[in-house]
C-alpha cells in the first residue's frame, strides 16, 4: 500500500505538470459544451424547431394562389350537335383566396375557355355559319361571411392559438432544459475541481502519515516507544490510503461526468481547472425580490392558454353555421378574344349571386359534452398553473434562504479552518520544544485537512446554488432577464 501512495503521487504529479501547460477556464469549458455537448445541442435544436413551427398556423391567413389548366379533345357522339362533332377546348383558371383574421373569406378569380369546333353540325344544316373559334371569359369576385359560428373569425383564431401556444410551451420547456444542461455542466466542472483539491489534500495526509509511521517504527526499534504506538501510526497510514483511494475513485467519476457534457467518451482531462474560490469571485447573480418568470413556469402558462383556446374552438361547434355569400361574375363570349375579355369586365352581362347557407349538427348534446370536457381540461390547467406558481415561489424563496444559510456556514467553516490551522501550527512549535509527539501533530494536521475539505464543500454548495439561480433567471434567448 505504500507503493500506492508513491505511484499515485508520481502519476498525479505528472498529470498536474501536464495540466499546467493548458488551463481550462469555466467559460471556455461551457463553450465546448455548447459546441459539442449532445444534451445542450439537442435542446437548442428543439428550441429552434419549435420556434419555427409556431408560425405554421399563420398560413391559415395567408393568400392562396390556385392555377389550373386543361386541354379537352371531345370527339364523342352527341345527341344534338349544334356546332359540330369535334370540339377542342383549352381551360385556364386562376384564383386568389384569403381567409381574413376577422372572419370573411375573399376570393378573386379569372377563367379562360378557348373552344375550337369542327365537323358538320346542326348550325350548318340550318344555314348558320358554324364558328370555328370561341372565347368565354369570366372574372369572379366572391365573399363569404360567417354570421354565427366562427363569427369574427373566433373559431379559426382559437384553432390558430391552440397550436401556437402548444408549440411555444414546448419551446420554453426545451429552452429550460438547454439551460439546465449548462447548469449541470457547471456543477460537473466544480465537482472535478473539488475532487482534485480533495485528492491533493488526501495525498498530503498520506505522505505525512507515512513519515510518522517510519519515525515511530524507528523509535520502537530503539525501545523509545511501545509497539502499540507503531500500530496506531500504521492504522493512520491505512486510513489515509483508504481515503486517498476513495478520492481517486471520485476524481475519476468526476472526470467522466466532466467529459460527458463536452461529448468525450474517455476519462482523460489533462487541462488544469480554475479554483472554486476564483469561480466564486467571478460568479455574480442579481437575485430579484419578486417571483422569477422562469421558463418552465412560462411553459405551463402557455399550456393553460392552449387549453383555453382548445375549449373556445370546441365550444363554437355548438352553434349553427350560418354563412352569407355574395359574388359577382363577368361574362364575355365572342370569337375575338379582346372583345370577349372587354365584355367580361364590362357592365352589360354580369351574374350576381346573393345567398346564405345554414348548417346545424343534430347531435348538439354531444357537441356540448365535448365542449364541457375541454372546459374541464382548461380548469385543470389553471389549477396546475396555480400549483406551479406556488411551487416556483417556494423554490425561489428556499434558494434565497439557502444562499443566506450557506454564507453563514461558510463563515463558520472559515473560522473553524483558521482555528485548526493555528492549532496545527502551535503543535509544530510544541514538537520543536519536545512537548508533544509526532502522532499528536499528525492528528491536528488531519483535523485541519478535514476543516479545509468541509469549507471547500460549502464553496461548491454556494456555487451550485448561485448557478441554479442563474439558470432560473435565463430567458429563451439564453440571456439573463
Could you please describe the fold and organization of this structure?
The protein has two domains: 275 residues, Outer membrane efflux proteins (OEP), CATH 1.20.1600; 121 residues, no CATH class. The chain is built from eleven helices and nine strands. The radius of gyration is 41 Å and the shape is elongated. The strands form two sheets. Strands 2, 3, 4, 5, 7, 8 and 9 form a seven-stranded antiparallel sheet that branches. A two-stranded parallel ribbon has the order 1-6.
Concise account of the structure shown:
This protein is α+β, with helices and mostly antiparallel strands and 481 residues long. Helices cover 61% and strands 16% of the residues. Strands 2, 3, 4, 5, 7, 8 and 9 form a 7-stranded antiparallel beta sheet that branches.
Q: Would you identify the CATH H-level superfamily of the largest domain?
A: Outer membrane efflux proteins (OEP)
How much strand?
A: 15-25%
CATH-defined topology of the largest domain: Outer membrane efflux proteins (OEP)
Q: Element order, helices and strands?
A: HEHHEEEHEHHEHHEEHEHH
Oligomer: single chain
Distance between the termini: 54 Å
Structural class: alpha+beta
Report mean pLDDT, rounded to a whole number. Answer: 88
What form results from the Cα inertia axes?
elongated
Count of strand segments:
9
| Main sheet properties | 7 strands, antiparallel
**How much helix, percentage-wise, in residues?**
55-70%
The low-confidence runs, each spanning 5 or more residues with pLDDT under 50, are 1-20
Which keywords apply here?
9 strands; two-stranded parallel ribbon; alpha+beta; 2 domains; Outer membrane efflux proteins (OEP); 481 residues; 7-stranded antiparallel beta sheet; single chain
Amino acid at each position: 500500500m505504500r507503493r500506492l501512495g508513491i505511484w499515485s503521487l508520481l502519476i498525479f504529479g505528472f498529470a498536474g505538470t501536464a495540466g499546467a501547460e493548458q488551463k481550462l477556464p469555466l467559460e471556455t469549458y461551457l463553450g465546448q459544451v455548447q459546441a459539442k455537448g449532445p444534451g445542450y445541442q439537442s435542446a437548442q435544436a428543439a428550441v429552434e424547431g419549435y420556434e419555427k413551427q409556431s408560425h405554421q398556423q399563420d398560413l391559415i391567413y395567408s393568400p392562396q394562389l390556385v392555377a389550373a389548366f386543361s386541354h379537352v379533345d371531345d370527339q364523342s357522339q352527341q345527341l344534338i350537335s349544334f356546332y359540330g362533332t369535334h370540339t377542342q377546348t383549352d381551360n385556364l383558371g386562376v384564383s386568389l383566396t384569403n381567409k381574413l383574421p376577422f372572419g370573411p373569406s375573399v376570393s378573386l378569380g379569372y377563367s379562360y375557355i378557348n373552344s375550337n369546333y369542327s365537323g358538320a353540325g346542326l348550325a350548318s344544316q340550318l344555314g348558320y355559319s358554324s364558328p370555328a373559334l370561341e372565347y368565354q371569359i369570366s372574372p369572379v369576385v366572391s365573399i363569404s361571411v360567417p354570421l354565427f359560428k366562427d363569427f369574427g373569425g373566433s373559431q379559426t383564431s382559437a384553432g390558430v392559438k391552440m397550436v401556437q401556444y402548444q408549440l411555444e410551451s414546448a419551446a420554453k420547456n426545451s429552452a429550460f432544459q438547454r439551460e439546465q444542461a449548462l447548469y449541470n455542466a457547471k456543477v460537473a466542472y466544480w465537482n472535478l475541481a473539488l475532487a482534485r483539491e480533495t485528492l491533493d489534500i488526501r495525498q498530503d495526509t498520506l505522505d505525512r502519515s507515512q513519515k510518522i509511521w517510519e519515525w515511530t517504527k524507528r523509535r520502537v526499534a530503539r525501545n523509545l516507544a511501545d509497539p502499540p504506538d507503531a500500530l496506531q501510526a500504521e492504522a493512520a497510514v491505512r486510513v489515509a490510503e483508504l481515503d486517498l483511494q476513495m478520492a481517486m475513485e471520485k476524481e475519476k467519476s468526476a472526470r467522466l461526468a466532466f467529459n460527458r457534457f463536452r461529448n468525450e467518451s474517455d476519462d482523460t482531462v489533462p487541462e488544469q481547472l480554475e479554483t472554486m474560490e476564483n469561480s466564486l469571485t467571478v460568479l455574480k447573480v442579481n437575485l430579484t425580490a419578486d417571483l422569477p418568470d422562469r421558463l418552465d413556469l412560462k411553459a405551463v402558462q402557455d399550456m393553460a392558454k392552449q387549453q383555453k383556446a382548445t375549449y373556445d374552438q370546441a365550444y363554437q361547434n355548438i352553434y349553427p353555421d350560418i354563412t352569407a355569400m355574395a359574388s359577382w361574375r363577368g361574362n364575355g363570349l365572342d370569337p375575338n378574344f379582346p372583345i370577349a375579355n372587354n365584355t367580361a369586365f364590362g357592365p352589360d352581362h354580369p351574374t350576381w349571386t346573393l345567398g346564405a347557407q345554414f348548417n346545424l349538427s343534430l347531435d348538439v348534446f354531444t357537441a356540448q359534452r365535448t365542449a364541457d370536457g375541454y372546459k374541464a381540461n382548461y380548469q385543470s390547467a389553471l389549477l396546475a398553473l396555480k400549483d406551479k406558481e406556488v411551487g416556483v415561489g417556494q423554490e425561489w424563496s428556499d434558494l434565497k434562504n439557502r444562499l443566506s444559510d450557506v454564507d453563514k456556514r461558510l463563515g463558520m467553516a472559515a473560522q473553524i479552518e483558521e482555528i485548526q490551522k493555528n492549532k496545527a501550527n502551535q503543535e509544530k512549535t510544541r514538537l520543536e520544544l519536545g512537548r508533544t509527539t509526532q502522532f499528536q501533530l499528525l492528528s491536528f494536521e488531519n483535523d485541519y485537512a478535514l476543516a479545509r475539505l468541509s469549507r471547500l464543500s460549502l464553496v461548491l454548495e454556494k456555487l451550485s446554488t448561485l448557478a441554479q439561480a442563474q439558470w432560473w433567471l435565463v430567458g429563451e434567448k439564453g440571456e439573463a432577464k
